[in-house]
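Holo model, calcium ion. Inputs:
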Amino acid sequence: MPFTRSSLLLAGLAVAALVSAPGQNSAPRSKTPWWQNAVIYQVYPRSFADTNGDGIGDLNGITAHLDYLHDLGIDGVWITPFFQSPQVDFGYDISDYRAIDPQYGTMADFDRLLREAKKRNIRILADFVVNHTSDKHPWFIESRSSRTNSKADWFVWRDPEPGKSAPSNWISIFGGSAWQLDTPRNQFYYHAFYKEQPDLNWRNPAVRNAMYDVMRFWMKRGVAGFRLDAVPHLFEDPQLGDEKVLRPGKTAYGDPILTRTHTDNLPECEDVLKEMRKVTNQFPDGVLVGETYVSGVKELAKLYGANHDELHLPMDTQLGFGTLSANRYRKALLEAETQLNGNTPLFVFNNHDNVRSINRLGNGTHKDALARMLATLMLTPRASALMYYGEELGMENDDPKRKEDVKDIVGIRGWPEDKGRDGERKPMQWNGDTTAGFSTSRTPWLTVAPGYETVNVSIETRDPGSLLNYYKALLRLRKSDPALRDGDFALLNEDDANVLLFVRRAPDGTAALVALNCTPEARSIAVRGLPERSAKVLLSSFAAAGTTLDNGTLQLPPYGAVVARLAR
Ligand code: TEU
Ligand code: CA
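Output:
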């Protein structure tokens, strides 16, 4: 989609130079660990950059673009799984945790990536798929071979029972029964995801030790830490027990909609997280990010550990994965501030499993403004953040049009209700060439999304008013501005259902006002409860840096966002 500048012509505010020029010299970082208030950029390696022309992105493609990531201003890169895998779930089915899949490169390529990243002060995080292996992993091949082999208890096995088609009514997240009958054991094994992804038995200490060895293997190589995949699914109720119908109807895969009380977020998960934290603590930069979809802030708070001894950064899905609403955002920010026991929240709006936020949220209009508003919401509170490749460009979801084009198996099973995750995994848009500069192959593994001709790194780098340059300015500002870096956090105008307002005030008195219009209509508000009568724009989606704003009547265009220095 070309940018819709006209949408910004509102409320008599200047349209033009949309980025500020914050000081070049970042203040020295304090001794806080690197991951606090860090921005971690998620790379889906298959779709980022292909250097050998096979249509599939690779590790060398990431290395080739480290300068881009450095200029963007991120602190770390999380790479989704690049380990040896049959690729049934595009890497989330691992057959060797210690080997690189040849599609993505070699161990030498990975070591070079680590070295080059380090030179640029960028930490690399690996994706650790802890819940399950591939059915082609030697551990599972041995485990399924008999009831008595040395790995017999490494996966979750149950006897068939007369008159029952499966040990329980549990449903796989990817559709169908979560139990698969297997020969020659003549037993069922449990799989939370595809049947090609058998669940490891985390109750077995040998499994735990083997997995902790894997962590040490990568951290010794130079990986800073891990994004732990599917954390809530590590344990199942040993008593089994059927799930109840949560609500009438069917999933996109034709299954009943059941509770997941026997399989999700069991308290035992925390024991494992504590052990993993101990492993991680042996390494100075060690960090554990968690893929933690939870139902509320209490559950989220627990995942940090009562003594800060579990996850460093469990994903806070409250902010980014609900509806677009000032009231909801206010509540999520307040909860993150007050109910996480002083731990660092990790905000995220986009990843490889969810429709991109500018397509998922809003009413389809003013997408460029919406992108800036969401970026500002994610990057100006006190938190770390996860970005997803292409988010900084305004890349849009591009779901397959025909079932036969779908690559993600859940999209085949769920068609047309659930078209799968291909839409948010489209090739990174580097330039306006036929394949968006992603690959020299004319047939990349997924076609490039429409809009790449204008929404791409090459064009946006040169356009001072681009979304990319907005992100760069925002990332610089959050490091260099005392208020955004060290300031506390206070909500204002808490009864406003349309505009979210907050102030970050640093110990030295420097203060920044953040105003975000969460609606597709222009809004005009009076800021209450501030000694300062005016503010000077630092960065905005609609006003030039340096513009003076009157706090008495702040005017915001649709989805307008502004960060401003409060004048004393
Ligand atoms: O996702 C875990 C997860 O809970 C998924 O159900 C997610 O909600 C779903 O993909 C949305 O469509 C992780 C990975 O992020 C995902 O890509 C993997 O497919 C999955 O684990 C299995 O490893
Ligand atoms: Ca390739």
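Confidence is low (pLDDT under 50) at residues 1-29. Residues 50, 52, 54, 56, 58 surround calcium ion (ligand 2) (CB under 6 Å).
Archived with the compound record.
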